[in-house]
Amino acid sequence: MADRSGSDEVPHPEALDAWFHLTAVRRDGDRIRYYGEPLVPRSRLADELVPAFEAAGYELRFSTDDAGNDVLVARPIGSSATSETDPRLNVALLAATVFTTMLVGATVWYYIPLSAIVANPLRILEAWPFTAAVLGVLLTHEMGHYVAGRRHGVDVSLPYVIPFYVPFGTMGAVIRMRSRVPDREALLDIGAAGPLAGLVATIVVTAIGVSLDPMTVPQRVLQGSGEAIVFHNPPLLDLIATALGQQTGYSDPSQAVHPVVMGGWIGMFFTVLNLLPVGQLDGGHILRAVLGRRQETVAALVPGALFGLAGYLWYVRDLGMQNSVGLWLLWGFITLFVSFGGSADPIDETPLGWKRVAVAALTFALGALCFLPVPIEIATV
């Protein structure tokens, strides 16, 4: 016999009868699980039931148990990340990243000695174009996710920008989805909005950067250790420069592209990493929306593909760990770890229409224009 005893805090089980054929209700800690069968499409089920549960202080999501039975899971909003709305951490991380990108920009890309910055800290401000380019690209990417999430009624956090040091001053930015995704259309829109918005900003930043006068490399740098980090141009960067009739390199070693170009390069680099089709990465969201649970099969192949790429560079191209071999090995392990977390599960599994499938294909195609097997190399100069 089904246990239909409810809770005084959440809608009574009988309130679900018009939308969900209930067979059992069970408590699991602070969660309440409603077992049964939806009587309406899952997207409508969410629209009808979620407001009532949220008003009672519960988050509601659609799930399945190990036997494949449909389950509605209600949990207190305060028990999850959905109650995290204090923006102070976001602001603090952004302020720290402004500082680290300016410091890296000044010392690495504007060739200002650290001793000169210590003597006159205001010299760090000379790197503001680099900081504006890098953060402009990253924040535009994340705000694409944010706007798309809000449009679909998904509770998403403000961006968390991650400060770091060389060579970029940051490790990128992330946002958190703190509530359920209603359907595969919403998942596709949220997943693709970031890369597409970020690529628009990347193209603008790159176009500005290649149009600016080159930097003069000081003699003390030219007479240095004899080794330098070389950032190879992805196809998209070369396409932009060619379209504008601009250079992306100089035969004269005392000339270097303007640091703003690196803002575009960084945008393309992070786009490639974000579009890896695994777990909670953008590519994982997009492919999950397109393929449904079959995305997990593709995700299982990603770490092996990255390890294979690293092996190819090591054994066939005879490149060392510092010449992108280590990069792809690292990301092989990262994607292996990320894959265990699984992908986002939308409430409604209705397949996408052809227009959104085309958007997904376009997003991956643009990402392919940002890919290079050897994006970074240590070269003798």
From TrEMBL:
Membrane-spanning ranges: 91-112, 124-144, 156-175, 187-212, 256-276, 297-315, 327-345, 357-376
GO molecular function terms noted in the UniProt entry: peptidase activity
Highest taxon listed in the record's lineage: Archaea
Main location: membrane
Keyword Ligase applies: no
GO biological process, one term: proteolysis
Domain Peptidase M50: 130-295
A Gene Ontology term for the protein's cellular component: membrane
Subcellular compartments: Membrane
UniProt KW keywords: Hydrolase, Membrane, Protease, Transit peptide, Transmembrane, Transmembrane helix
InterPro entries: EGY1-like, Peptidase_M50
Membrane topology: Multi-pass membrane protein
CDD domains: S2P-M50_like_2
Keyword Transmembrane found: yes
Descriptive protein name: Site-2 protease family protein
Natural source organism: Halolamina salina
